[in-house]
Every structure is written in C-alpha cells, then in structure tokens.
Amino acid sequence: MTSFTNRYVRFYSIQQILYGPVQIAVSLLFSLLAFRNVRRIVRRQVPIVRRRLDRQMTAMILTRVVFFVIFALPFTIYRMYIINNPPSRSNSLQYSIGLLLQTSLNYFISLNNASNFYIFMAISSRYRRQVKCVLTLALLI
Where are the transmembrane segments (predicted)? Predict the structure, then answer.
C-alpha cells in the first residue's frame, strides 16, 4: 500500500470511530445525566408544573437517544467491518451484496432524523396540541 492509502484508511477509521461509537456513548451519557437530574428535581422544592414538564422533556430525550442507538448502531458496525475487511471488486456478487447492505443501512440511518416528529407526537401532549394548532392555522390560510 502506498503512504497515501495508509493515511486515507487511518483518517477514515478515525472518522468512523468519532461518528459511531463516540457519538453513541456521548448521547447515552448525557441522556443518563438528564435522567438523574430530573430524579433530583423531584426532591427539591420546584413547582409541580415545572417538574411535570422536566419529566416530559427527559422522557422525550431518553426515547430519542434509544431510537438514535437503534438506528445508528447497525450502520456503525457495518462501517467498522468494511474498514477492516474491504470487499474486492473481483468478486462481483460479494461487492453487490455489500453495496445493497450499505444502501439499506444508509436509508435506515436517515430514519434517525425523520423519527423526531413521531417520537415527540407519541410522547408529548403539549407538542401534539402545538402541532394541531399549527396545522389548523395552515389549513385556514
């Protein structure tokens, strides 16, 4: 391998590590910290409305992180596998299967961004009221 190829593979490996496992770990860490913070708010003298909204926001964040892990983990695992075992172009069947799997996982990870609306609609009554208000205003215009 040439020195350029070695540098490219090394850079690409670092990028995939930062994109995949590190991003998932940081998301999990901060969602657990938010959950712990809400547990502490219950013990303090905070208005009931604020506690309810904080619990609702934490539930939304935890659900969002769970969906993020579900959507991002298969793509991350696949990318790590491809970096360590690149498919050869001489075996066209193996190469085509790899491309199909990569395309499917790219679609799957794009659901990560589209899922926010549905997660928030399912969890938050306040969000549902706001969406209903915006949609009725949009239909009137």
Answer: 17-38, 59-81, 93-120
